[in-house]
């Protein structure tokens, strides 16, 4: 999986270890590789509360084929797009969501990736 390889080869980050796995969290996304079988699980932590949810298959494909950074940006763009659709434009959070969406979209555009 390209996302995991990207993280393993990045000397600027530290992967975390448990007794059973190695993992990393960035931009609300958690990736974990289990020692026993080598299975890699990616979860979305952007939802409310302290829980992680499964990512969509289309997002998993991006992590597998394109990489970690692009995958995190796409998941965040989709999440903030959905939040904007479901938030009253007069809400305090509306501007926050709009600014985050703009930031992540601009970062993705700078990477010049074709999805």
Helix tally equals 4
Total number of distinct structural domains: 1
Secondary structural class: alpha+beta
**Main sheet characteristics:** 5 strands, antiparallel
Portion in strands: 15-25%
Beta strands, count: 5
Radius of gyration: 15 Å
Q: Which spans of ≥5 residues are poorly predicted at pLDDT below 50?
A: none
Q: Kindly report how far apart the N and C termini lie.
A: 17 Å
User: Mean pLDDT, nearest integer?
Assistant: 92
Strand order of the largest sheet: 1-2-3-4-5
Basic shape: globular
Percent in helix: 40-55%
- Order of SSEs: HEEEEEHHH
Can you characterise this structure?
It is a single chain. 47% of the residues lie in helices and 18% in strands. The protein is of the alpha+beta class. The chain has one domain (2-110). A hairpin with a 5-residue loop joins strand 3 and strand 4 (40-44). Helix 2 runs antiparallel to helix 3. The longest helix has 19 residues, at 68-86. The radius of gyration is 15 Å and the shape is globular.
Key words describing this protein structure:
5-stranded antiparallel sheet; 115 residues; 47% helix; alpha+beta
Which helices and strands appear, and what pairs or packs with what?
Layout: H1 2-8, E1 16-17, E2 21-26, E3 29-34, E4 40-44, E5 53-54, H2 57-65, H3 68-86, H4 92-110
Antiparallel strand pairs: 1-2, 2-3, 3-4, 4-5
Helix pairs in contact: 2-3, 3-4
Short description:
By secondary structure, this protein is of the alpha+beta class. It has one domain. It has 4 helices and 5 strands; from the N terminus they run αβββββααα.
């Amino acid at each position: 999986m390209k996302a995991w390889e990207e993280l393993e080869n990045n000397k600027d980050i530290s992967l975390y270890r448990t007794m059973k796995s190695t993992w990393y969290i960035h931009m609300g996304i958690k990736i974990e590789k289990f020692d026993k079988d080598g299975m890699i699980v990616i979860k979305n932590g952007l939802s409310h509360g302290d829980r992680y949810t499964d990512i969509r298959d289309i997002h998993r494909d991006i992590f597998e084929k394109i990489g970690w950074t692009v995958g995190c940006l796409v998941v965040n763009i989709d999440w903030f797009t959905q939040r904007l659709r479901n938030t009253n434009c007069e809400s305090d959070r509306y501007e926050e969501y709009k600014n985050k969406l703009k930031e992540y979209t601009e970062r993705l555009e700078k990477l010049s990736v074709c999805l």
